[in-house]
Design brief:
The complex is a heterodimer of chains A (about 110) and B (about 120). Chain A is an all-beta fold. Chain A has no helices and eleven strands. In chain A, strands 2, 4, 5, 9, 10 and 11 form a six-stranded mixed beta sheet that branches. A five-stranded antiparallel beta sheet of chain A has the order 1-3-8-7-6, with no helix packed on it. In chain B, the strands form two sheets. In chain B, strands 2, 4, 5, 8, 9 and 10 form a six-stranded mixed beta sheet that branches. Chain B has a four-stranded antiparallel beta sheet with strand order 1-3-7-6, with no helix packed on it. Chain B is an all-beta fold and about 120 residues long. Classes of the chains: A mainly beta (about 110), B mainly beta (about 120).
Chain lengths: ~110, ~120
């Protein structure tokens, strides 16, 4: 069985500040992990994914995430937030055809 | 087409009516997924197709929900005798389906409102 927990349904940062969105997973098989982003009134799109190659994964728009097996975490970071980063972010895990999504974290960016 | 399309974009129906939601995946994608996104919640996996076959239907919330895929392309999600708790955004995604880590490409969703 697999599950995903995203800590914090809402995160607010100032423009230029570090973005840190937390994701912890549980999986009975080696996991594949994803971060998706949903901009207002748009569909979900893939930010990045971990597929058991490098543990530090770089994605689009300056985001990256690090797979830490010992902590069962896959936190998403960006060094400097931009206003355009305001969106909802979803962490997801799969070990097969069934992908389990977290409840999402809405990121607010203050000017 | 260039991306995953879904129709209708919005559907308002009365409790007890049947509805059909359609998904057109990206051409050539063998894997197709249906999810449900309720207000304030994450995406709930409903069903997965590889070609026309659905290996696991356990994600469907009740026997009022069914889905089919024909010709390895278009898929239809049918909800019979709709209830108010069925109100949600229904999302479809497709992927190349070669490996489980293939990127899923999502459609814009169908917003279903049951009055």
């Amino acid at each position: 069985a697999q599950s995903v927990t995203q800590l914090g349904s809402h995160v607010s940062v100032s423009e230029g500040a570090l973005v840190l969105l937390r994701c912890n997973y549980s999986s009975s098989v080696p996991p594949y992990l994803f971060w998706y982003v949903q901009y207002p009134n748009q569909g979900l799109q893939l930010l990045l994914k971990y597929t058991s190659a490098a543990t530090l994964v770089k994605g689009i728009n300056g985001f990256e995430a690090e797979f830490k097996k010992s902590e069962t975490s896959f936190h998403l970071t960006k060094p400097s937030a931009h206003m355009s980063d305001a969106a909802e972010y979803f962490c997801a895990v799969t070990g097969g055809f069934k992908t389990i999504f977290g409840a999402g974290t809405r990121l607010f960016v203050k000017a | 087409g260039a991306g995953v399309s879904q129709s209708p974009s919005n559907k308002v129906t009365e409790k007890g009516k049947d509805v059909e939601l359609r998904c057109d995946p990206i051409s050539g994608h063998t894997a197709l997924y249906w999810y449900r996104q309720s207000l304030g919640q994450g995406l709930e996996f409903l069903i997965y197709f590889q070609g026309n076959s659905a290996p696991d239907k356990s994600g469907l919330p009740s026997d009022r929900f069914s889905a089919e895929r024909t010709g390895g392309s278009v898929s239809t999600l049918t909800i019979q005798r709709t209830q108010q708790e069925d109100s949600a955004v229904y999302l479809c995604a497709s992927s190349a389906g070669l490996v489980f880590t293939d990127t899923q490409y999502f459609g814009p969703g169908t917003r279903l409102t049951v009055l």
